[in-house]
Amino acid sequence: MKKIFILVVTVLLQIDTAMAQDGYRPLLEEGKVWKYNYNNGRKQYMKSLKISSDTIIGDYTYKKITDVSSQNIEMVLREEEKKVYCRYPHHDTEILLYDFGKNTGDIISKEEKYGEIVILKVMSVKTIMVGSNSFRGMEVREYHVPEGTPEEKLSEYGYEKGWWIEGIGSYKGLDSPIGYPGNYYTFYECQIGDETFGQIELFGFVTNIMPLKSSKTNSKKNVVFDLNGHIVQLQQKGIYIQNGKKIQIK
Q1: Phi, psi of 216 (to 5 degrees)
Q2: CB 125 within 8 A of CB 138
Q3: Residue environment code for 41-78, b if the CB has 16+ CB neighbours within 10 A, otherwise e
Q4: Are 12 and 6 in contact (CB under 8 A)?
Q5: Per residue of the chain (250 residues), what is the pLDDT tens digit?
Q6: What's the Cα-to-Cα distance from 49 to each of 35, 66, 127, rounded to whole Å?
Q7: What are the CA-CA distances from residue 185 to residues 9, 46, 125, 145, 178 (Å)?
Q8: DSSP states of 17-81
Q9: HSE value, Cβ hemisphere, 13 Å, CA-based, for 82
Q10: Please, which residues bridge with residue 163 across strands?
Q11: Residue 31 backbone zone (phi > 0: left; psi -120 to 50: alpha; other: beta)
């Protein structure tokens, strides 16, 4: 019995060591709170989401994601092998939101939708430092192409983009991994205990990958852009670009 016990302890220590060396930051941690700017052109406000409790659906345990103000359950999420899965209230199926285990050049998914082939691909991976802590960031693009299109031809087609941060989510809503036109939510900050990952950290990651539009490319001075490169009015908290420089509204 003693030898068996020692063997079990040794195996568990090896597993813990491997996880520590991997350094993966899980998305679903107790006490984590996300904040988003909401703006549909007519109204604006700050929305907060938090992990409230567990729920079991079928063979899986999910975390309830609750709106802080209304206490409504927005969605339930589960995390397994660096993948984050989502289910919505009254929906019978789950969808894959994120796969943080991929690297530059990897295909995340490839499926047929609306008569086209939709390919989700990792374009680059960067490390973001927040104080002494590091976050792994991914630039992801979603291509809609005709069936049979070779991978080397993807750049000939348009795409939608997303920026994923390990442990944080995306630059849009928590359940919006890709920035489709009409997404009204923009990431503001994520609180992890005493640690805060905010727009300023996301700004550094985005601009290192893809320079944002600035007023240098616009005939008018003092035009203000959001992190997506869209012209906006300074009406709420966040990071913006004006005359080619970063400005922060608190």
Answers
A1: -65, -25
A2: yes
A3: eeeeeebebbbbeeeeeeeeebbbbbeeeeeeebbbbb
A4: no
A5: 444 433 333 333 333 333 334 689 999 998 899 999 998 888 899 999 999 899 999 999 999 999 999 999 999 999 999 999 999 988 889 999 999 999 999 999 999 887 899 999 999 999 888 877 889 999 999 999 998 888 888 988 889 999 999 999 999 999 999 998 888 999 999 998 888 898 888 877 777 655 444 434 444 456 565 655 555 666 566 666 665 555 666 6
A6: 6, 5, 25
A7: 46, 9, 23, 27, 12
A8: HHHHHHT---S--TT-EEEEEEE-SS-EEEEEEEEEEEEEETTEEEEEEEETTT--EEEEEEEET
A9: 15
A10: 139
A11: left
> Which pair of structure tokens corresponds to residue 192?
């992890």
CA–CA dist 177, 34 (Å, integer): 15
Domain regions of the chain by residue span: 30-48+99-210, 211-250
Tokens of 18: 């491997």
Token digits of residue 223: 């035009």
Categorise residue 65: left if φ over 0, alpha if ψ from -120 to 50, beta otherwise: beta
